[in-house]
Amino acid sequence: MRKWSLASRLLIGQLAFLVCLSLGLSLALYHQAEQDSYEETAERMLAVAGTVAADPFVLQAATAPDPSSTLQPFARAVMDAAHIDFLTIMAPDRTRFTHRSDDQIGKAYIGSVDQALDGHSFSETYAGTLGPSVRAIVPVLDPDGEVVALVAAGITVDRVAVARNAQLPAVFLISLGALACGALASYLLSRYLRRTTHDRRPDELQSMFTFYDSALHSLREGLLLLNNDGELVLYNDQAAALLGLPPGGGGRPRDPRTLGLPGPLADLLHEGRSAEDEFHFAHDRILVVNQSPALAPPEPGAGVRRRPLARTVRRTMPPAKRLGTVTTLRDHTDIEALTGELQSMRTLTDALQAQAHEHANRLHTVVSLIELNRHSDALEFATRDLEQSQQLADDVVSAIGEPALAALLAGKSAQARERGIALAMDLAQAGSTVPLELNPGELVTIVGNLVDNAFDAVQGLPDAAVKTRFALVDSSGRDCFEITVQDNGPGITELDASQVFDQGFSTKDPKVLLPSGTGATGRGIGLPLVRQAVLRLGGTLQLDPGGSPGCGARFTVLLPLPAADNLSASGSPASGSRGVSP
Description:
With 582 residues, the protein is of the alpha+beta class. It has helices spanning 6-54, 56-62, 67-82, 114-117, 157-165, 168-197, 202-218, 237-243, 263-271, 333-371, 375-399, 403-419, 440-458, 494-497, 526-536; strands at 86-90, 122-128, 131-141, 147-156, 222-227, 232-235, 275-282, 285-295, 304-306, 313-315, 322-331, 422-429, 465-475, 478-487, 540-544, 554-560, 579-580. Among the domains are: 6-165, PAS domain (Beta-Lactamase); 335-580, Heat Shock Protein 90 (2-Layer Sandwich), CATH 3.30.565.10. It is built from 15 helices and 17 strands.
């Protein structure tokens, strides 16, 4: 058995239903026409018989000694004028005074007369001498109300059927018209369904829906579907998790700007513009967003046109219809964390390379002094260099209890020496165990990006300098770890200060946005990453744009420590500040 598509099944089912409906309608109209014909004939016979019975001539003739001699010509004239089959005037005892056939005069009338004898008019269908007929019987009353005669007027059923059959063409035309209109509507609906369902069978549609729904909710990437009005129509479970949306992914279309999404991301979704690997922040996540139009697939046979009087077929594909937009979301948070760790490793590698280069120069100096037999000078030079390097390492490690952050600062110190930047670190009030209470990855992200940003701000200045300060402070009765990074660059303008934490903005090149890591490896993403890390730790981030001579931008981060493990700021090392310079 051939498997029909949904559109074909619906078309055939509708046509079968329409045929049955048309047959039923035809029968109903036929019976209605027949009933109307009988009722109309009965009313007409009542009118004719009533008119005859009310004629004074009939009353006078019916009471005469020989009624038939005067009433028979009268009855024939009425039958011819009224186009009826018979008009019988009879005595109350059924004796006929008139009849279409003269040989029936004087015989008994065949039919019911009881109601007429009681003074009432009525109609009936009865089989008489002329066959079945529709007749009406009306009494003839004298001035005293007594029944003196009866008048029966009728038309045979055959003539009634002729009148009924005259209405059948109209009945059939109505039925055929209804069938044609229904068939046309079914055909148009079938075409629409063929185009909408791509002429697929119900089992295929069910399988496609099941597979697509499974694929939608099995994707590791977030997927959102929006209509042409910029309203969110469908999203999968991963998108709900990334954006903090309620699970389910369906229901009434909603404006993404009303779902509590960050402004730039909500605007992107609503506008429906194309986007490729754009970075957006959503809550505490970094998302890579791709968005493109959702186009309807071409219809079967679309674009094929045969030119008149030509054998060639010209194929011109019509423009694809836009259905909305498709948006994919990838969680880049873990990648950024790994990139931050990689950046720390690269910083350490650069520091080791710088130290190796520096130690090679110093080693050559020591070797040259030994070759010149200046052994005491060589020993003094090597000892002094070792003490300086060891002092810096000891100060950083003793003041910063977190190994990753200590390694980062040591690497940044070596990197600053190589780039000709004076890096000063105030570690006197840091407290050797404070950073242990904080997430090391977040600390590396915050410090690394702020220091890299300061390095970029002073790069190329003759007296380039960056100051960092780490301290345990008391803020509103709660111990907090404070990080301050300041440079002596040109500062940040008020306009830039209002946008510096926006994703994609960079004072070095506002148009540059690289999809890579933290700090100097990307543009326009380092400071937003700092802000996100600070927010995740429950802290605050303040910016002093600076701008006065020798006073550049200053970033201050305040990170609260867990309440159970708070350390009093007064219990930190002695107050005062000692600079540790390379």
